[in-house]
Amino acid sequence: MAHSKPLKASALLAAKKRAVFRFIATQLVLVFCLSIGIFGIYDGLHAYSFLAGALASIIPSLYMAWRVFGHSGTRPAKDVVKSFYRGEAGKLVLTAILLSAVFIFIKPIAPGALFAGFGIAILSHWLSPLLLKY
């Protein structure tokens, strides 16, 4: 059994940052592939509605990741907590704005497909423990 040295704080942070952004990229690929499949099975209306719903979830997650991991190096715990709170608040506001904008500006829309995309993007977070290993 080999023992490895623990990572330094900055190396651990960099590894987590890469893992989080890799997970978001995986979400985007998954959503685009599902949208193409929906287009093939149903039609364009359902495909772009699904994609719009998923992006209304993924874009705020990307904002949250940027707020939390957008700084280089380590920071005091107080600043990290502040970044999490600001990131989560911004994520909630951005989600509400994006969902509202989808309903206001995208016509016609298939609400079922939109909420399916939104839900699948949220539920894909359950896969994060598998993908966030560094």
Description:
With 134 residues, the protein is an all-alpha fold. It has one domain. The chain contains five helices and no strands. α2 packs antiparallel against α3. It is elongated.
Please specify the SSE layout and strand pairing:
Elements: H1 9-41, H2 44-69, H3 77-105, H4 111-123, H5 128-131
Q: Quick recap of the structure?
A:
The chain has 134 residues and is mostly helical.
Compute the number of helices: 5
Strand content: under 5%
Overall 3D shape: elongated
**Biggest pleated sheet:** none
Low-confidence stretches: none
Query: H/E series, N to C?
Result: HHHHH
Helix/sheet category: mainly alpha
Terminus-to-terminus distance: 20 Å
Helical percent range?
over 70%
Instruction: Let me know the number of strands.
Output: 0
Radius of gyration, CA atoms, in whole angstroms: 18 Å
Q: Return the average pLDDT rounded to an integer.
A: 87
- Please, how many domains? 1
Overview features:
134 residues, single chain, mainly alpha
